[in-house]
Amino acid sequence: MTSTAIIYSKKFLEHKTRMHCENPLRLEVALNSLKKFGLISPEKCVVVEPRIATMEELKLVHDESYIEEIKHFSVSGGGYYDGDTYLSKESFEVACYAVGGMLKICDEIFKGNFKNAFGLIRPPGHHAGVFGRALGASTIGFCLFNNIAILAAYALQKQLAKKILIFDFDVHHGNGTQEIFNNSPNVLYISFHEKRIYPGTGFEDEIGIGEGKGYKINIPLPYQSDDSIYLKAFNEIVLPVSEEFKPELILISAGFDAHHSDDISSIQLSAFIYNEMTKQMVKLSNKYCNGKLIACLEGGYSHDTLSKSLPATVAALTQTEIKIDDRKPEAPNYTKNKAEETIKNIKKKLNQYWKI
Ligand SMILES: [Zn+2]
After folding, report:
1. Global pTM value
2. Identified catalytic residue from 127, 173, 193, 259
3. Are 57 and 146 in contact (CB under 8 A)?
């Protein structure tokens, strides 16, 4: 019961994307790095094969017309679905395995077979909304079905948990996840992302709608933000709000594209901050959720981040230490000042909902 499950299958390599940065090699690098750090062992992490998700399960968050469109586009040969997103003939089926893997592990965890889990899955999901493109985004950003959102909806529907925290540290705003749960007070969604990059949403004043007001928290951080800025925002916003919310299940949209080695953004985190944030999330899960925490891969494209930030995160899930060698870039002063201002603004906007 003490071990962490890693959802992985060679099937995930069959979503072939040609010369794309979101490619099958990412997962091979990721899995090898877990092996290299000795994290794959019966006491630490056990690899679990996914199952396929059903149409009904995909429909927990997506409109049937969108699911059918992706299915048809994929099985009839694929190609570029939009300016960012490439599908091969196998992509629809692979995406169904990615979702199904997350749902399978959710059941296993609630049966008590594993403590927590990391989904080493692809395609990623957090940009996919009800009808695909979410909140006015130009594309679905390499995502087909919203793995983490379907998992949250599944756990709510099966009454496994009434209050779910989704913490998203991918460098992009999870516009799909926000859209899906925008009016829900049952899902607290907190996103760290770089300000003003794709998909162009996730401003401080997007706090949810209707009954969901206050339950969507966006922390857009400026160009070249570093570990110390993330840590400040984490300690002053993410932790106190999560403590007050008292989740019954914690989910993490774990994208590693905010690392300094990843060219897709200018944020320059080190592997150490992923370790620290995950340790704190594990602590929270032990306090409120009987340890139940499920993370899954979103972005993260450089092999350096996949072989450092990912094992740093998984080691935190197993509550063991590994020795990681990484540099810690420092943000320039103007970035620090801007970030400070943003954090202050967010706290001011949210203090009618939370004690921050
Ligand atoms: Zn991303």
Report:
1. 0.98
2. 127
3. no
Region for 63 from its dihedrals, namely left if φ exceeds 0, alpha if ψ lies in -120 to 50, beta otherwise: beta
pLDDT (tens place) for every residue of the chain, 356 residues total: 569 999 999 999 999 998 899 999 999 999 999 999 999 999 999 999 999 999 999 999 999 999 999 999 999 999 999 999 999 999 999 999 999 999 999 999 999 999 999 999 999 999 999 999 999 999 999 999 999 999 999 999 999 999 999 999 999 999 999 999 999 999 999 999 999 999 999 999 999 999 999 999 999 999 999 999 999 999 999 999 999 999 999 999 999 999 999 999 999 999 999 999 999 999 999 999 999 999 999 999 999 999 999 999 999 999 999 999 999 999 999 999 999 999 999 999 999 999 99
CA of 221 to the centre of ligand 1 (A): 14
191 C-alpha to ligand 1 centroid (Å): 11
What is the residue-wise DSSP string for 17-39? Answer: -TT-SS-THHHHHHHHHHHHTT-
- 126 catalytic residue (yes or no): no
Task: Give me ligand 1 centre to Cα 141, in Å.
Answer: 8
**What spacing in Å lies between the alpha carbon of 352 and ligand 1's midpoint?**
30
**Partners of residue 253 on adjacent β-strands:** 168, 296
Contact 82, 138 (CB under 8 A): yes
45 membership: H or E segment, kind and range: strand 45-48
Question: Which residue is listed with tokens 């080190």?
Answer: 270
Return the number of other C-beta atoms located less than 10 Å from residue 286's C-beta.
15
Polymer length in residues for the chain? 356
**114 CA to centre of own chain:** 20
Q: Tell me the CA–centroid distance for residue 111 and ligand 1, in Å.
A: 32
Domain boundaries, the chain: 4-350
CATH 3.40.800.20 fits 4-350, yes or no: yes
